[in-house]
Amino acid sequence: MKKNNFKSFPKKSHNQKIHDAHVLRKQEKEAAKQVIDRFFFCSIKFIFICFFLKAKEAHKQAVNDAMAKYKSNKQSRLKKLVKKTRRGQPVMKGQIELLLEKIQKEKEKEKQ
């Protein structure tokens, strides 16, 4: 006669079945919790990226505004310094105005 190669598993008692069901439910809860944690992490990551992009855009805008202001000031200063008379002599009025503005700004900083 041939022997059966199958191992016979002992029948589980009622308490073992309840315990196995409990362990299975616990594993399912843990898996669901991992999914929720992953979703929560992704949503926080998305919010952080959005905040970072907005901050980056605001910084870029501020830099562009500052650069435009600097260029306009530089251009107006250059116009005052470059002016010449008909005979090619520099107009002193513009230079004196620039020096006066510079002195006034320094005095305001000293007061503060």
**DSSP strand (E) fraction?**
under 5%
Number of strand segments: 0
Count of individual helical segments: 2
The Rg value, from CA coordinates, equals 40 Å
Mean pLDDT, all residues? 86
- Give the overall silhouette: rod-shaped
In angstroms, what separates the terminal alpha carbons?
Answer: 109 Å
Largest beta-sheet details: none
Q: Helix and strand string, N-terminal first?
A: HH
**In terms of structural class, how would the helical and strand content be classed?**
mainly alpha
Domain unit count: 1
Structure keywords:
2 helices, mainly alpha, 112 residues
Describe the structure.
The protein is an all-alpha fold. The protein has one domain (14-111). The protein is built from two helices and no strands. It is rod-shaped and about 125 Å long. The model has no long low-confidence stretch (mean pLDDT 86).
Secondary-structure blueprint:
Blueprint: H1 14-82, H2 92-111
Put the structure in a nutshell.
With 112 residues, this protein is mostly helical. Helix content is 79%, strand content 0%. It has one domain.
